[in-house]
Specification:
Blueprint: H1 4-41, E1 50-56, E2 59-70, E3 75-79
Antiparallel strand pairs: 1-2, 2-3
Length: 93
Amino acid sequence: MGIVIPVAVQGLRIASLAGEVAHRKGEAVRVAERVLNECILMTNYFQANQRGLVTEGTREFDWTLQAEVWNQTMTNSFQAPVPVASMPMDSPS
């Protein structure tokens, strides 16, 4: 029993961290989708790289819009990477 409880607690902690990361990634996807949609609607996506800060819930996300020519089909490729901060394993929950 002395080994089972600490192992179970560690398992719950890891599961909680995984849920937190999944939640942050979901927020980052919503931010990226919103940024891409706004740039397409405002037709300012042909400008050079753009940057900004968006608040989603209680978190702030830095975003960067990168436009580049995609030679395969003679169209443009747009990316809006939104970095997701991860929690170190030793941080308190």
